[in-house]
Design a protein that fits this description.
This protein is an alpha+beta fold and 298 residues long. Helices cover 34% and strands 13% of the residues.
């Protein structure tokens, strides 16, 4: 009986020692880390493959016409035949999703043109064609006016509306890896530029994945408007200052607002040359080497 208890105690001690062995613990942690890195690499590889599939998707017409910047302005369609399902909503704001289709790139006020008619079809904005509604924004150009693909780059004459900036842009810029809209809505696929393109990096160009910079954009708009207002006030002061002088009509602008420039000369020096510009009179260029030699001789 005592020997049996001693054997059980020894097995227990061996088990406890095995659990507290630091070598075994390190080996276990190493195996877990290797498995984690392997699964992470597999996930990233699948994500890259998915992005490339999305980037390369689309019709032959899409690939040929993506970077042709033609914009065709078309009239609104005849919307007298609206599906009764949407008739009550027509006078209200239409949401971005209609019948399972996301109306990306459509101006909010124009979403009412992107509802199914009484036959469940989409009427191209030219009014000459109709297509199945599920073909809207499916990355294939069906309407000759390009109105069925405002949210993709499938149509060479398509237009994407950037809502925060209140402007249209050619749809060839959609999902091209460059953030054109301040909210990044034009890069909804999240396609990134290939690193081997080696494109120059500049502060005014944001690459996908995009971040929302609309607050900065609106601040810049306010700043630009203030600069314009200051410029208008400065122009009025200049016009009033020289109003009673005998100035040749039309030579210095419509209101002689550039006359003050003719009263002064401006000097600019580059590493190689020095320039003197006297607006409405003359301009001269002198080599810095010649100027240096002249000063030495004097």
């Amino acid at each position: 009986m005592v020997e049996g208890e001693n054997e059980a105690m020894r097995r227990h001690l061996r088990f406890m020692n095995a659990r507290n062995n630091p070598v075994h613990t390190l080996v276990s942690l190493f195996i877990v880390a290797v498995l984690f890195i392997f699964f992470q690499g597999t996930i990233m590889k699948n994500l890259q493959r998915t992005q490339m599939m999305l980037l390369n998707s689309g019709s032959e017409q899409h690939n040929k016409g993506k970077y042709v910047h033609h914009i065709k302005h078309v009239a609104a369609p005849d919307i007298s035949r609206i599906n009764p399902k949407f008739a009550a909503k027509y006078k209200k704001e239409i949401g971005i999703k209609v019948n399972g289709t996301l109306l990306r790139g459509v101006k909010k006020d124009h979403r009412k043109y992107y509802v199914p008619n009484d036959e469940g079809r989409f009427t191209c904005l030219s009014g000459n064609e109709t297509i199945e509604f599920h073909l809207v924004n499916n990355d294939y150009c069906d309407c000759s006016d390009g109105s069925d693909e405002p949210g993709t780059s499938a149509c060479k004459n398509g237009r994407f509306y950037c809502e925060p900036e209140l402007r249209y842009m050619t749809s060839s810029r959609v999902n091209d890896g460059i953030c054109d809209c301040c909210d990044g809505s034009d890069e909804w696929k999240g396609v990134t530029l290939a690193p081997d393109l080696k494109l120059p990096v500049t502060d005014d160009v944001q690459r996908a994945p995009c971040s929302d910079t609309c607050l900065d954009y609106h601040h810049q708009q306010i700043h630009d408007e203030n600069v314009k207002k200051e410029g208008i006030l400065a122009k009025e002061e200049i016009v009033q200052k020289f109003k009673n002088q005998n100035i040749e009509e039309g030579k210095y602008g419509e209101e002689n607002e550039f006359y003050y420039l003719s009263k002064e000369c401006y000097v600019y020096k580059s590493p190689s040359y020095m320039y003197e510009i006297c607006p409405y009179h003359n301009a001269s260029q002198v080599s810095c080497v010649d100027l240096h030699n002249t000063i030495i001789n004097i």
